[in-house]
């Protein structure tokens, strides 16, 4: 039998090229529409016309069922997580594949009907597909209901929005250098350290189990105290 790794790599490459082509087409359409109206910002209708409807719907479903349906910020944060997963080698290569992955998002996320709040979800999904992201979520690929806490030592919180707490998983080597932020730190406005620079060339192993998939584990109320060591990071940029 042929080696599966070259085949898998080729399929991944083809998928990424396909996504890049679709993105370029969407961007070109948006720029053309913008030029047609004298360089003004395109309308919602123009934005919706420039994105892939299937991807937009899958993304909107994740945002709708995983966030407060009246919270634009919360939906944008969930959408950012979905796109971060698409870009990661650890998750499927496309939006619908990420959203439909078993045990990762709300039950029935791909089949339940979207009602009140659907338009906001679809419009926000279009913006995410055009490249907009939640600034504080950064590269985080995980979240859970805000106020719950878990015993894993690798959870670094970066944002709270739309009823969810968003976090990165940080390996032993990196978290030994800088203390991880708790939900309490984020609520208090303490700067959440950006590990992106430290991750380059580091063995940032993923530990524990994704809290989103802990359906059998009963979470407890967040009781983490403020971290005194974060005092030295006050005033630094996120």
From TrEMBL:
Transmembrane segments: none
GO-annotated molecular function: hydrolase activity
UniProt cross-references to Pfam families, sorted A to Z: Hydrolase_2
InterPro entries (UniProt xref): Cell_wall_hydrolase_SleB, SleB_dom1
UniProt domain Cell wall hydrolase SleB: residue ranges: 71-167
Signal peptide start-end: none
Name the UniProt record assigns to this protein: Cell wall hydrolase SleB domain-containing protein
């Amino acid at each position: 039998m042929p080696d599966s790794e070259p085949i898998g790599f080729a399929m991944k490459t083809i998928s990424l090229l396909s996504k890049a082509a679709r993105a370029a087409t969407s961007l070109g359409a948006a720029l053309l529409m913008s030029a047609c109206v004298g360089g003004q910002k395109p309308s919602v209708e123009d934005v919706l016309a420039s994105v892939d409807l299937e991807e937009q719907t899958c993304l909107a479903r994740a945002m709708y069922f995983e966030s407060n349906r009246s919270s634009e910020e919360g939906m944008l944060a969930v959408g950012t997580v979905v796109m971060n997963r698409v870009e990661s080698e650890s998750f499927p290569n496309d939006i619908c594949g990420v959203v439909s992955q078993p045990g990762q998002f709300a039950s029935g996320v791909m089949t339940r009907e979207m009602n009140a709040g659907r338009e906001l979800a679809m419009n926000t999904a279009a913006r995410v597909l055009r490249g907009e992201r939640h600034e504080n979520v950064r590269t985080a690929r995980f979240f859970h209901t805000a106020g719950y806490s878990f015993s894993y030592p690798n959870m670094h919180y970066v944002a709270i929005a739309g009823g969810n707490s968003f976090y990165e998983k940080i390996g032993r080597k990196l978290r030994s250098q800088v203390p991880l932020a708790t939900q309490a730190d984020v609520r208090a406005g303490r700067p959440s350290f950006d590990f992106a620079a430290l991750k380059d060339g580091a063995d940032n192993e993923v530990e524990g189990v994704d809290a989103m998939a802990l359906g059998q584990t009963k979470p407890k109320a967040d009781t983490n105290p403020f971290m005194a060591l974060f005092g030295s990071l006050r005033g630094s940029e996120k």
